[in-house]
Amino acid sequence: MDRIYATWRNQWVQKLSSETDISCPFCSIEQNGMSNPDIDVKNYVVKRQKTCFAVLNLYPYGTGHLLVIPSRHVADLSDLSNDERADLFELLRKSIEVVKLTYAPDGINFGANLGRSAGAGIPDHFHMHILPRWTGDSGFITTISETRVISESLEQTLEKLSNNWDKVN
Predict the structure, then answer these.
(1) In 3-state terms, what secondary structure has residue 90?
(2) What is the pLDDT of residues 36-66, one digit of tens each?
(3) Does residue 125 have an active-site annotation?
(4) Whole-number Å distance between alpha carbons of 92 and 33
(5) What is the pTM of this model?
(6) Which residues contact 61 (CB under 8 A, 6 or more apart)?
(7) What letter does residue 166 receive in the DSSP assignment?
(8) Could you tell me the CA-to-CA distances from 13 to 23, 44, 70 in Å, in that order?
(9) How do the domains of the chain map onto residue ranges?
(10) Which residue, of 30, 76, 106, 133, is most buried by count of CB atoms within 10 Å of its CB?
(11) Does domain 49-167 have CATH number 3.30.428.10?
(12) CA distances from residue 125 to 28, 55, 71, 104 in whole angstroms, order as listed
């Protein structure tokens, strides 16, 4: 079996593990954008609902990478109320449909990383990822060169997804 080592990741994991006083960027987006659409645009918020919002990932794995986040600061899916879970999963469903309409991917990954050791960069605020995928979209450049190729700016992605939002039920 061949192995590819990504030793750079260990430095990132150690850095995250040592940080103790981090304000929550998701709460910052929630608090700053609630009554100001201009701030939502600057924060790449695609859609707000009653108890959650969809926002572009600032460090995407690929074009169209969205996060669906509860407005309330909770660490785990089980911490959400029934209404919050229903709202979150409805926004997740609609976000997936918008991504399909906008990008026509071959497939979609969606899910959550629960806890830092599971890959959560922000483990204290539950969130779900939506990532459109295309056959052959991850090749040697990501694996060997520690580089991601994103085919459009976050501003372009926000505009495309926002323009298609009302086209999906």
Answers:
(1) helix
(2) 788 899 999 999 999 999 999 988 888 999 9
(3) no
(4) 20
(5) 0.80
(6) 131, 148
(7) G
(8) 18, 26, 25
(9) 49-167
(10) 30
(11) yes
(12) 12, 14, 9, 30
